[in-house]
Amino acid sequence: MKNIIDVIYNKLPHMSVTDKKIAQVILKKPQDVVDYTISQLAIEAEVSEASVSRFCKSLGIDGFHQLKTRLAQVSDDSNVSFTVDDDIQASLKNIAEKKDSEISNTLKNLPTDKIARHEELISDRKI
Description:
- The protein is mostly helical.
- The chain is built from 8 helices and no strands.
- The radius of gyration is 19 Å and the shape is elongated.
């Protein structure tokens, strides 16, 4: 399952003005949106509740509750911090930096001694 923040960033250039308003609120404060009602998000984005529902469908998710669930999954990562940039290149750079950080953190936690041992076992096998 793809990170919902990445999905929003990927779709951002092709969104309607209304959807961009919703996306900007979500990208600016994803942890807060987890606790919002659909009405609160609509008010914050200055759109209708129906627009929020359509926005969720445009992301390929069932509805607002699923959006909140997917945001909560991303929000659990303490390294997540996103900014909304008007410039798409800056947004892409921001995404790349976050992914680079995620990869670096993953590599730091890999048990290299066990990986080396498994590599030896695989190399020794005759296939």
